[in-house]
């Protein structure tokens, strides 16, 4: 709070005060009070006025300076009233009361939307559970009546199942801490599940698969990581070109374990590459004949960050794409489950 602002705000009061002092002086002179008495009374009135003026400035400056200091240093700005001392002047008390009421209203609104979000997530999980029943029936029918048409139906049903899984993970990603369990997982086991899920696509497109150095343990949630890796593999399959090759391997050092998935597909243009993790971004390739949703890599990035991993992508148009998932050693995941064999080779 600046003194000049405080002074300008009180100019009308200062003017009125001096008018009152002048009137008092005139009345004392009318009643023939001694000159020395008038001077003493005027001196006391001026001293009292100056004391009230500067004390008011000190009181408010201290309060508002403290307010700004707490505001600049507190993380949750809405809790500033909890850190403030009680005010000893009316305006300060009113301000703190207003802050308390607005914070109370904010908490009520947050709880309302939190409840709505939880209801929506529960509905989505229930819907996913219910929709999987007819999909399972379709798969059973097509498996028992194999021909060219039922094989096509089965493949489309698997695509639908993938999109449903994407919806489920998107809903769960809003509150990831309630769903994942961090533990030691072998990369080879997770990747084998993904390969089995997509075996028909590998055979159909005659994709050569090179897997190596995957008998390594990382700390992650196997279900979430399977979904993440599956999104990357599905992209590699979707954008494959002649003589397709997908390489999957790991690289370890003292600080991290990196899972690398590399393909020789159509690649990503340089102008699209910085935006591939944006929500809903499809790029030139996705918009043309592949009908991409722009959600796969967005969820990959979001879920990786929730698990404490980093994900990097590099690509050259017409050459291929490389995706790297980095599992840091000594990250917050270590603290969550204690010491273990993170980043060590499997003895199997």
Q: How would you describe this protein?
A:
- This protein has helices at residues 3-9, 11-30, 35-73, 80-83, 90-144, 148-172, 187-197, 199-204, 222-238, 283-288, 296-307, 332-337; strands spanning 183-186, 208-212, 217-220, 245-252, 256-263, 310-316, 320-328.
- Helices cover 60% and strands 13% of the residues.
- The two termini are 70 Å apart.
- The strands form 2 sheets. The chain has a 5-stranded mixed sheet with strand order 2-4-5-7-6, covered by helices on one side. Strands 1-3 form a two-stranded antiparallel ribbon.
- The chain folds into 2 domains: 3-105, no CATH class; 180-337, Heat Shock Protein 90.
- It has 348 residues and is α+β, with helices and mostly antiparallel strands.
- It is built from 12 helices and 7 strands.
- Helix 5 (90-144) packs antiparallel against helix 6 (148-172) and helix 9 (222-238) packs antiparallel against helix 11.
- A hairpin with a 3-residue loop joins strand 4 and strand 5.
